[in-house]
Amino acid sequence: MPDTPADEDEKRPSAEPDVPTASPSHPDAAARDATKPRPRRWCVTVAVPAVITFVLTLVRRSPSLVGHWGSTEGQDRFRSTYEAAWRDLPEPAATLDIRTDYGQVRVYRFAGKADTGVPLVLLPGRASATPVWADNLPSLLSTGDVYALDLLGEPGMSIQDRPITGDGDQAAWLHQTLESLPEEYFHLVGLSIGGWTAVNLALREPAHIKTLTLIDPVHVFDDMPWETIARSLPASLSWLPKSWRNSFNSYTAGGAPVEGAPVARMIETGMRHYTLKLPQPGRISEDRLATLDLPVLTLIAGRSVMHDAPTAAKTAKRTLSQGTVRVYEDASHAINGEYPERIAKDITAFTTAHTESAPE
């Protein structure tokens, strides 16, 4: 595995294969205290891309109608950082490239310690891809099998080749992906914009969804604060100093340092070299949330800057007919890296309670 460049000025790495070579998970992961936030090794998580996607679409105009790399060099750099971040993940049991009407979706299957028949499907935040789950997979695998995918049309190993023009298209490619997997039902877990993606699918194509788990979702239960939007603007311009992006990244992660974190480097490299051509997700209305006819677990970060936590929690409790809402008071938007064992415990209890019978 080549050394990962930390900056554009460093030597260009050689091209890497599409399928990363994974290493065993951290041996001490299960022993960490589930009641306390874990030190944030990568911290950035998915907040940055979720905020600034709209700005990037304005400043990176391109005649192409699909997401694409600006150069082969930029793509090679991303692959190098992707693989460096991947080293903290368990070895996947299978790597799948699933063809949909909108492109090829990269899906990894991880073998769990139990066979429930209803696996988890993990949806990352914007531009963060599968390595964002490095802290979570060791504990989530105790629940059962896990699929993790790279969102289509974003930096990662999925390849968009047709335009995605609206929320219906976003639901269609994900529905087709689930239909291609051997199981009939899935527990869908969405982080940040992945939470919005999960709800959007459940509202349009719920046939294969057993439950939803939404981890500090954006554009779902509250609007994004103007302060966060304003702070994101300097970070959205790739030609500005890296320190500006690091400052914003730290802001979204509750003030934690982000320099040198593998996932942070991966996200930044993707943002710098990949042009998104996706519609801006809109806030899901309360009327539509009230129509969700399946169990929903919502985990809200009490110190999230992506929404007002009390407002988001109240909206979830008010609108979800089968909702369970938990607020992690001390968590930032980097919640999945801060509380991986606690999240796994909540997800396990929730999914176990809803696995015995299939939805009508």
From TrEMBL:
- UniProt keyword annotation of Hydrolase present: yes
Provide the taxonomic classification: Bacteria, Bacillati, Actinomycetota, Actinomycetes, Kitasatosporales
Q: Does the keyword Transmembrane helix apply?
A: no
Per the UniProt record, the source organism is Streptomyces atroolivaceus
For this UniProt record, the keywords arranged alphabetically read as follows: Hydrolase
Q: What are the residue boundaries of the AB hydrolase-1 domain, all occurrences included?
A: 119-252
A Gene Ontology molecular function term for this protein is: hydrolase activity
> Which superkingdom?
Bacteria
Q: Where is this region: Disordered?
A: 1-38
| InterPro entries named among the record's database cross-references | AB_hydrolase_1, AB_hydrolase_fold, AB_hydrolase_sf
- Name under which the protein is recorded: Alpha/beta fold hydrolase
